[in-house]
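Action item from last meeting closed. Structure (330 res):
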């Protein structure tokens, strides 16, 4: 009889996968290492959509704005309080959780298109607000420079595997990949536990869930809080690898991109988020290649990624409404 893998055993498997992925960074070029860090960021962001929409049934079109809140909070804490970068990432996750807790109270009274419209307004408004305040750096944003690669990392045995120097991009990869794997492990434990069962009961039938003792309103708030903490963490990670928190980074397009990645992977498929993240990172490069073949027009180069993402979302909904065929989390 098949026995379910324990949580600790799965943690060990994830740790082993992390070591292998980190070791592989020594055999690829700088661009691929940086793209790997981007994939890790998107994995965390898509996991937040999976938790919220796939399991609790609440649609958010504003997670790009939550990422912006986490990014700015982490940047301000790092620059103003001079705390370690790891603590700054935690501040970003905490800021996202607070924003999600507040937004959750609105979500408890809204559903369907009304909730989607509210979160969409948030995605439009937050970047615009950042332009108005000098403390947030205006249109130029704020720099988030975590400094040089630490000596212990550059001289470790893992850093000596493969070829090439231990660069800042490789250091970003080393940071983001373990965080992404840890996120998947934590979210899976949440979704397979009592909290996840409450989420799924609420998604399936809120009235029936209420009758069996589940407090639907507080469960919606909890779902938004957990989801937004992940989005805030992803925003802080994105600001770190870009070295910048700016309105142009966290546009409305980012929110739609996250939803697209979640749909591509199967919105309730936690592990499938890895596929969605890889596709999202690949789209700009593929679009650039196509634009070059079409003559390299600036308009085509700027707009083609958005067009490709939109077409991919439509095709996925029509052809693969349940997302990619990756084993679904239970």
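Sequence:
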């Amino acid at each position: 009889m098949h026995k379910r893998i324990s949580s600790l055993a799965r943690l060990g498997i994830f740790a082993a996968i992390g070591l292998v992925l980190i070791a592989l960074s020594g055999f690829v070029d700088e661009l691929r290492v940086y793209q790997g860090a981007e994939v890790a960021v998107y994995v965390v962001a898509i996991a937040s959509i999976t938790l919220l929409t796939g399991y609790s049934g609440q649609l958010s079109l504003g997670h790009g704005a939550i990422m912006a809140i986490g990014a700015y909070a982490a940047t301000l804490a790092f620059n103003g309080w001079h705390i370690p970068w790891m603590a700054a990432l935690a501040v970003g996750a905490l800021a996202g959780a607070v924003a999600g807790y507040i937004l959750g109270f609105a979500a408890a009274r809204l559903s369907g298109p009304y909730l989607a419209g509210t979160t969409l307004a948030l995605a439009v408004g937050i970047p615009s607000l950042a332009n108005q305040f000098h403390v947030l750096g205006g249109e130029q944003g704020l720099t988030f420079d975590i400094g040089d690669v630490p000596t212990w990392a550059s001289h470790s045995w893992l850093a000596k595997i493969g070829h090439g120097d231990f660069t800042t991009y490789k250091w970003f990869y080393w940071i983001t990949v373990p965080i992404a794997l840890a996120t998947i492990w934590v979210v899976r434990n949440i979704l397979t536990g009592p909290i996840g069962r409450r989420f799924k009961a609420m998604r399936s039938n809120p009235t029936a869930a209420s009758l069996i003792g589940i407090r639907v309103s507080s469960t919606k708030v909890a779902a938004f809080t957990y989801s937004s903490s992940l989005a805030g963490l992803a925003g802080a990670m994105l600001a770190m690898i870009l070295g910048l928190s700016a309105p142009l980074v966290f546009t409305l397009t980012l929110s739609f991109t996250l939803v697209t990645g979640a749909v591509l992977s199967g919105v309730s498929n936690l592990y499938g988020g890895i596929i969605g993240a890889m596709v999202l990172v690949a789209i700009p490069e593929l679009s650039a290649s196509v634009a070059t073949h079409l003559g390299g027009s600036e308009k085509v180069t700027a707009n083609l990624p958005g067009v490709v993402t939109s077409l991919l979302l439509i095709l996925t909904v029509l052809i693969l409404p349940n997302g990619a065929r990756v084993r679904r989390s239970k």
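Note appended to the action item: Strands lie at 142-143, 244-245.
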